[in-house]
Amino acid sequence: MERYADRFGSDLDREIIVLRKKDQQDLASIKPTVEVISGSTNNEMSLDEFIEAMEDTDFIARVSEKTGVSVGKIGELDMDSMKSFFEQADIDNSGTLDFDEFVNGIIQSFRSYDEDFSHFFTVVNGLLGELPDEKTSDFISSDGFEMFKSVGEDPLSTDSDTRGQFFTMVNELLVDLPEAVMKSFTDSQDFELYKVIAERYGG
């Protein structure tokens, strides 16, 4: 099984959230592993290949890390539920799962609202690291940064009102992202999560 460096997101510093200027990886970073499992060039898995993949603990750990779904929840799939999951995730009824069907199936089947928001924070934390330096400095000096730090300390436990305020603030900040970064984001799986969070907390 291929191993690869995880460069996704940023870490909490002692006093502030460090908005790192670094390369970001979206959910597609587990795609090479899907290719290795399927052994095909079209990145699709048959039911047997899917079952084999779900027996690989390293693969499950990587999927968990990239989707925000706990290893425990993914591990709850037994043989019958794996078959049911496969059928439901196979949106185009092709008899195989492509990468997007697989990821969407995991997220829709297992990730809770709290996990969605926690993963959203990770995504946003990485995106804000791509703001122009002047905008980053302005944000760190603003009152909103205190809320950002507070949410970042425990996004899973953040109440709904705070999540709404956080989304509104972030939505305004992201308009200043460089065009290339914004395009990469809107083309990624993470943008689907962004739209889900907007629907839940955008008011």
Q: Describe it for me?
A:
The chain is mainly α. It folds into 2 domains: 27-110, Recoverin, domain 1; 113-201, no CATH class. Helices cover 60% and strands 0% of the residues. The chain contains 12 helices and no strands. Helix 7 crosses helix 12. The longest helix has 16 residues, at 113-128. The radius of gyration is 18 Å and the shape is elongated.
Topology:
Blueprint: H1 31-38, H2 47-53, H3 57-67, H4 71-74, H5 79-89, H6 99-110, H7 113-128, H8 133-140, H9 144-153, H10 160-173, H11 179-186, H12 189-201
Helix pairs in contact: 5-6, 7-12, 9-10, 10-12
Question: Tell me about the biggest sheet?
Answer: none
Which percent band covers the strand fraction? under 5%
Kindly provide the radius of gyration, computed on alpha-carbon positions and rounded to a whole number of angstroms.
Answer: 18 Å
> What structural class do you assign from the helix and strand content?
mainly alpha
Mean pLDDT: 77
Write down the domain tally: 2
Poorly predicted sequence stretches spanning 5 or more consecutive residues: 1-27, 35-41
What is the general shape? elongated
Order of SSEs, N→C? HHHHHHHHHHHH
- Residues in helix, %: 55-70%
The number of helical elements comes to 12
N-to-C terminal Cα separation, in Å?
Answer: 44 Å
